[in-house]
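Lab notebook page, bench 4
Experiment: in silico fold of construct C2
Operator: M.H.
Input chain length: 235 residues
Purpose: comparison with the prior construct
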Amino acid sequence: MNIIDLSLTIDEETKFAGFPRSLVYGEPESSTKIVEVASLTKNKVQSHNFTMCTQHFTHYDAPAHFLEDGLKNDEVPIDSFVGKAVMFDMLHKEPGSYVTAEDLIKTGIVPNEGEIAVIRTGWTDEAWGTYRFWDEMIGLSTCAAEWLMKHNVKSVAGDFMLCDSPLHPPEDRKWETDNWSPNHFMFLGKNVVMLEWLTNLKAISEERFLFGCVPIKLKGTDGAPCRAFAIEGLL
């Protein structure tokens, strides 16, 4: 059995750690704060307060992220985050490109109903923490999302944007249009959660493996940070 950590480390120093909302819809960016509130020297115990955005670092999107009546973080069934997974290797995709249905079909892999689809581009490993990460983001095409939904996957995970590039979407899918980010509506509208900003996916050698991406059970939120992992050698 081999357990592989797929999570980014949460810290205060990382720049560009979340969706660039100031550039997309004009709201100020969030920051991460980790503050010691008790110390071993003074209090014989160490404790911290921390503040962060639910959409920063390795996290997932609950249906409430895009849908008024969508399931909130604490309402999403735990089995959405754990189960058999299948890997789609897209390491050949160039910065700024899209993973398409044709790309997925060419792998020869067909996801089984109820599996978690994991798509590997290497983009988080290459560019995380830089403006380039967002400016040259790899995206997931609508046809690829439709193909995954056709095969009834229960969750979708990746190390890149599982929808349009946020800074360079197609003209008819910019934020100010009614057709903004259709993949979110497609996946989340069917309670298929989206697991984002995985890292270290290159360490996975098996095509099928056990996957977990366990979020903090924050009440009423649109998602939550996760500790993601793969377990090889059990299937």
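Observations: The helical segments are 21-24, 40-43, 101-106, 123-127, 131-135, 142-150, 182-188. The chain has one domain: 2-232.
Next step: discuss at group meeting.
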